[in-house]
Amino acid sequence: MKCTFLLALFIVACVGTVAQHSFTLSTNQELKVKGTSTIHDWKMVSGKAKGNAEIELKGNKITGINSMVINLPAFSLKSGKGGMDNNAYEALLAKQYPQIFFELTEVETITDQMIKAEGRITIAGTTRVIPLQVNYKVSERTILFSGGFPITFTQYKIDPPKALLGTIKTGDELQISFETTFKLIN
Known about the structure:
The protein is mainly β. The chain is built from two helices and eleven strands.
């Protein structure tokens, strides 16, 4: 009996503990959309997303992500040029669909610094599943995620924006990139 107890204690000590924690998206974030047009490349940036996640940790390593949801107000995307912003909001149907949503749907692999996963992104009322490769770094009470992925306007049933009676046209391809920090909820 004494041997069985010691063996069980040894196994628990060797395996270590995995704990699930609740996190919320901090204000330390940057989400970028980059694209092209007939006259110049452009970008829009936001730091106004809200989100939460349920993440399993073992030390400074992620062992699982049970859920992650992020909501980005479409009107928070800014280029620094009011006319361009207004064209983008019109193309995104931002009045009708004021939020851009992301929901993690599947985690394929997790290594010490990288996650391969899939997630649903809803833009202008259209939802698509996209593959993701995300780098991460766990600190004391935070997790920094960074990565990027390509999409197109037409995947989301959006006509690429135009300006000046169609003489300036936006390319269909976009690059989304992000650097976000999730902080542990007390």
